[in-house]
Amino acid sequence: MAPLRTFSPLVLASFAAARQCSQFQVPVDISSRQGKFSEIPIETNLDVGAFATRFSEFQGNYSDALFTDFQTLKGSYEISAQYCRPDSGSSGTIQVLTHGIGFDKTYWDLSYQNYNYSYVNTALAAGYSTLAIDRFGIGNSTHGDPINEIQAQAEVEALNAVTTKLRNGGIPQVGTAYDTVIHVGHSFGSVQSSWLSALYPNNTDGIVLTGYSGAGQFLPYIIAGWNLHSARLNQPLRFGNASNAGLLKLAKQYGMNIDLVSGLQKVLGAAGVDLTTQEIGDIVSSTEILDLITGYNETVFQYNYPSGYLASSDLTALQYAFLYPDNYDLALAIMGEQTKQPVTVGEILTIGNAPMMSTFTGPVFVITGEHDIPFCGGNCYGQVPNSTAANIPAGVEMAFPSASTFDAYIQPGTGHGLNFQYNATAGYQVIQDWLASNGLGA
Ligand SMILES: *[C@@H]1O[C@H](CO)[C@@H](O)[C@H](O)[C@H]1NC(C)=O
Ligand SMILES: *[C@@H]1O[C@H](CO)[C@@H](O)[C@H](O)[C@H]1NC(C)=O
Ligand SMILES: *[C@@H]1O[C@H](CO)[C@@H](O)[C@H](O)[C@H]1NC(C)=O
Ligand SMILES: *[C@@H]1O[C@H](CO)[C@@H](O)[C@H](O)[C@H]1NC(C)=O
Ligand SMILES: *[C@@H]1O[C@H](CO)[C@@H](O)[C@H](O)[C@H]1NC(C)=O
Ligand SMILES: *[C@@H]1O[C@H](CO)[C@@H](O)[C@H](O)[C@H]1NC(C)=O
Ligand SMILES: *[C@@H]1O[C@H](CO)[C@@H](O)[C@H](O)[C@H]1NC(C)=O
Ligand SMILES: *[C@@H]1O[C@H](CO)[C@@H](O)[C@H](O)[C@H]1NC(C)=O
Fold this sequence. Notes:
Elements (H helix, E strand, L loop, with lengths): L19 E18 L7 H11 L6 H5 E19 L7 E6 L13 H4 L3 H7 L3 E5 L18 H17 L11 E7 L1 H12 L6 E5 L8 H7 L3 E2 H4 L9 H10 L6 H11 L6 H10 L1 H6 L15 E3 L3 H8 L7 H9 L4 E2 H6 L12 E7 L35 E7 L12 H13 L6
Parallel strand pairs: 3-4, 3-5, 5-6, 6-10, 10-11
Antiparallel strand pairs: 1-2, 2-4, 7-8, 8-9
Helix pairs in contact: 5-6, 10-11
InterPro entries: AB_hydrolase_1, AB_hydrolase_fold
Protein name: Alpha/beta-hydrolase
GO molecular function, one term: hydrolase activity
């Protein structure tokens, strides 16, 4: 499977098409009425596995079982953002991009192959500005208690606060006020964009939900399929704060050098295990070894997430959750694995709390990969009980009874992680064209 070349460090290409982008922190004050849950063991990988087991139980409701009371989370936090505008200047219309679980704001602007997979570049080319955020709790946004602080509702409040600042011209680094704000989400980011439209219908002008449907019954597929581990233990050098010196010492002890593949081959060879270079390469890239050594012999930014931040285990789990097999570039998937982000226990416990209905009166678009696992069970053309909709994503229309326009689109040959499949940019264009033909052109 993995050609060894794909394992070498990414050679970051020269820069992409001219554009004006900057990164900064946006301070927000939020107040969120949300759940208070019983503390559960979350230190070890087996603790985390037990959580996933209980959460995925047929006809169970683990959120309900752990719920003790409501509480109000109130505080000042920082949201990390990337702002981009076209070279020609801003048109007054901006897309606010909210990533899903397993990613951060770079999901929208993948640097791979000179930004060939960049959603941001497609939106800029269509004349939009973009603001991609790291969701509250994730990436370079403020982290917090993974059970009782970092929950869905708090993240929606943070997204809304950022939106209000964009409208008021309240972000100095943006330097202008946007009167038209389109919320574009992926997966959990779509849940939150839709949720925002239900709570604050006047604060959005258009909703684009990618990797989304209203069907909740497939959530256990992905919770189980991720094979969740403690993030700190999964990528100790990047998610935790483990020292590289320790890994290097271990490698030395086993007679390895930085060339891990030939090192492993030597060690296994000495033990009488005869594997080809290709086979070793496959093992390194498709198992947790890849995660254990991410950051090996280089300086990686250490997120130092506390226990209770969980990560999908390895590339196999990433493929199950996000990628339709045989229709993606393996080297890009490996990059996705090495730059993945965690999910908190509190997020999983509250992901199902979104309001059932939104009174939003503007245009709503849903675009989901044909083989999406968490929102379609792998087949978006399937029929869910009691739905008369043409397909699963089309069923979202029920939740937006006042929308001025509603359309659903199925992106062919694609899994949940739309931005990582071949043909991703054609899907991006479908979105820009739909916006333009529904009164939201740049
Ligand atoms: C679980 O219970 C909570 C109430 O505590 C409820 O809001 C939620 O809808 C339930 N989830 C499911 C999937 O039934
Ligand atoms: C977070 O900040 C660090 C240090 O500046 C940087 O290396 C990393 O790429 C950033 N991550 C995101 C998701 O912005
Ligand atoms: C949205 O705006 C309308 C018209 O100005 C107003 O009647 C309504 O109360 C507002 N809704 C919210 C949730 O602020
Ligand atoms: C780390 O890698 C560099 C080359 O990328 C190599 O020169 C150096 O010796 C390595 N350090 C260790 C301790 O293996
Ligand atoms: C590493 O992270 C743990 C957990 O957040 C923390 O308790 C510990 O102090 C950190 N160690 C260093 C050296 O930062
Ligand atoms: C389908 O509708 C029937 C009749 O309204 C109801 O009894 C049943 O619970 C519904 N099933 C699901 C899965 O919603
Ligand atoms: C970008 O992707 C398209 C297909 O989506 C492909 O035809 C093209 O060669 C790619 N360009 C680069 C620079 O990889
Ligand atoms: C690529 O995506 C576009 C837009 O959804 C679609 O029309 C086209 O059929 C797709 N191509 C393939 C080969 O799936």
